[in-house]
Automatic annotation (TrEMBL):
<feature type="signal peptide">
    <location>
        <begin position="1"/>
        <end position="18"/>
    </location>
</feature>
<dbReference type="GO" id="GO:0071555">
    <property type="term" value="P:cell wall organization"/>
</dbReference>
<keyword id="KW-0732">Signal</keyword>
<comment type="function">
    <text>Specific in hydrolyzing the terminal glycosidic bond of polygalacturonic acid and oligogalacturonates.</text>
</comment>
<dbReference type="InterPro" id="IPR012334">
    <property type="entry name" value="Pectin_lyas_fold"/>
</dbReference>
<dbReference type="Pfam" id="PF00295">
    <property type="entry name" value="Glyco_hydro_28"/>
</dbReference>
<keyword id="KW-0677">Repeat</keyword>
<dbReference type="GO" id="GO:0004650">
    <property type="term" value="F:polygalacturonase activity"/>
</dbReference>
<feature type="active site">
    <location>
        <position position="237"/>
    </location>
</feature>
<keyword id="KW-1015">Disulfide bond</keyword>
<keyword id="KW-0961">Cell wall biogenesis/degradation</keyword>
<keyword id="KW-0326">Glycosidase</keyword>
<dbReference type="InterPro" id="IPR000743">
    <property type="entry name" value="Glyco_hydro_28"/>
</dbReference>
<dbReference type="GO" id="GO:0005576">
    <property type="term" value="C:extracellular region"/>
</dbReference>
<dbReference type="GO" id="GO:0005975">
    <property type="term" value="P:carbohydrate metabolic process"/>
</dbReference>
<keyword id="KW-0325">Glycoprotein</keyword>
<dbReference type="InterPro" id="IPR011050">
    <property type="entry name" value="Pectin_lyase_fold/virulence"/>
</dbReference>
Length: 398
């Protein structure tokens, strides 16, 4: 190591009045993660970790943060993954990597990007993965899990390889002003590039901009008190609850409010997913003030394959509300890029493609499902339809 590098490394960490600031050092063409991992044991409390502006860092290996308390991670420079797909796959399989960046827990943790347009990007070079059709040994992007009092703001993710943010088990989260740019430039499809997977309690997601190829938002089992609002979603699979009840799991999702969201060129706007044979309850879920344009199924409500006689259970749904939807249904010939099965995995038997609402409920599993002020046009001008068997819903109102 040359003396100048030594100097840089030794001055990268500074503690002033009990607060430690670490500027992540950078070596051209080398992996920059090692230097951060070496310093992390000294950065678990009262620290700022800064990827500085003006530098493009090489994020060639995964980062797992230990439990953190009062720590801010600021991505003010650019971060780039390796473009060596096989190399990343080797790391994923040999180190059993799920997320490339993993926060394992703690208190008062902020993950902050940059508001400068030229800086603060994390470029995962996902396009090459999508073009090659690689669906295995893919790293997801950022797990922000088991954190109490967390913030994710101003983050900018370019071409993630797969899922982007997951917040499982966190409590009191504010995620805002984040951008995910995950549309494909070619005919290949950006499979499984879910935007925000909200698991946990008391979370506010707002002012996020998401272009992707899977759920824009997915609210998973155990989630409570989730608000997702004032956002834009394009190209993906909608604002989803679930899937709940897989393999007989007992679902518990409560108090979800999704409002003021624009959905463009998407499979669904609002969507509820549950598995036959599941158990438990999803209650008090509202989607309101949703604008959509070019959406195949604007409102795919509680629905599921009919329970069979071996296990007639289903996830129960209660107090669902869909209000103020308006927009345009894509009823022109179109096959969404994720349609790789025949029939398409998203085909709804007997639907005509002109339905604004599809409810297909099993009797006795749903109560108090309301739709109000739903207005839609089809692209072709054909009349809009609704698919729902009223006998399956109690206390419903339109
Ligand atoms: C972090 O700072 C807080 C208050 O500034 C202080 O109470 C706490 O002891 C510090 N923690 C550590 C590990 O230094
Ligand atoms: C929380 O962390 C931030 C740094 O992200 C720090 O400025 C603030 O003082 C911390 N809050 C408390 C209560 O320690
Ligand atoms: C930072 O990365 C983004 C996304 O790749 C790119 O558009 C921008 O030009 C980069 N900034 C600099 C200064 O290279
Ligand atoms: C709705 O969200 C958009 C951002 O997508 C925002 O500009 C607008 O102010 C929000 N409207 C309300 C009523 O909050
Ligand atoms: C329903 O959820 C909303 C927000 O998502 C919350 O404000 C309200 O208190 C909840 N109502 C009940 C009865 O739990
Ligand atoms: C019924 O569903 C259960 C799981 O819910 C499954 O194990 C079983 O094989 C199914 N039976 C039939 C006849 O499809
Ligand atoms: C079906 O649901 C009931 C009531 O929630 C539960 O007691 C039972 O164990 C469930 N059966 C299966 C096979 O999951
Ligand atoms: C119905 O929703 C639209 C927006 O989708 C809104 O402009 C309109 O005011 C709403 N009407 C009522 C009666 O709430
Ligand atoms: C529907 O939209 C109208 C007009 O913007 C607004 O006054 C009303 O509060 C909205 N209703 C709901 C439930 O959001
Ligand atoms: C589709 O419609 C036909 C004719 O009405 C009916 O027999 C069949 O059960 C329906 N299929 C489904 C899955 O609803």
């Amino acid at each position: 190591m040359r003396p100048s590098r030594l100097l840089l490394a030794s001055t990268a960490i500074a503690t002033v009045l009990g607060w430690t600031t670490f500027v992540v050092p950078h070596s051209p063409d080398k992996d920059d993660v090692g230097a951060l991992l070496d310093a992390l044991p000294r950065l678990t409390h009262n620290s700022s970790i800064i990827f500085q502006k003006g530098v493009t860092y090489n994020l060639f290996s995964p980062i797992t943060f230990p439990k953190l308390t009062n720590v801010e991670v600021a991505i003010e420079g650019n971060l780039t993954y390796s473009t060596n797909i096989a190399g990343i796959q080797d790391i994923v399989s040999s180190q059993n990597v799920n997320y490339w960046i993993t926060f394992t827990g703690g208190n008062n943790v902020t993950l902050r990007g940059s508001t400068e347009s030229e800086w603060g990007w994390i470029d995962a070079h996902g396009q090459a993965w999508w073009d090659a059709g690689i669906l295995d040994q893919r790293p997801n992007s950022i797990s922000f899990s088991h954190i109490t009092d967390g913030v994710i703001r101003d983050m900018k993710i370019l071409k993630p390889i797969a899922h982007v943010f997951a917040t499982g088990g966190s409590v009191n989260l504010h995620a805002f002003n984040n951008r995910i740019l995950s549309l494909s430039d070619t005919d290949s499809f950006p499979f499984n590039t879910d935007g925000f997977s909200a698991g946990g309690t008391n979370m506010l997601f707002e002012n996020n901009f998401i272009q992707n190829g899977d759920d824009c938002l997915t609210v998973g089992n155990g989630a409570k008190d989730i608000v997702f609002r004032d956002s834009y979603c394009e190209g993906g699979h909608g604002l989803s609850i679930g899937s709940l009840g897989k393999g007989g799991q007992v679902a518990d999702v409560q108090n979800v409010l999704i409002e003021n969201v624009t959905m463009v060129n998407s499979l669904y706007a609002a969507r509820f997913k549950s598995w036959t044979g599941g158990n438990g309850l999803a209650r008090n879920i509202t989607w309101r003030d949703i604008r959509f344009d070019g959406v195949l199924f604007p409102l795919l409500g509680p629905r599921g394959p009919r329970p069979n006689t071996t296990n007639p259970n289903n996830t129960h749904v209660q107090d669902f509300s869909f209000e103020n939807f308006s927009g345009i249904i894509r009823d022109t010939p179109f096959v969404e890029g994720s349609c790789v099965t025949d029939p398409c995995w998203y085909a709804v038997p007997n639907a005509t493609g002109k339905e604004v609402i599809i409810f297909d409920l099993y009797p006795g599993t749903a109560s108090n499902i309301r739709t109000q002020n739903i207005s839609a046009k089809t692209k072709t001008g054909a009349p809009v339809a609704v698919m729902c068997d009223p006998a399956t819903v109690s206390a419903s109102r339109r």
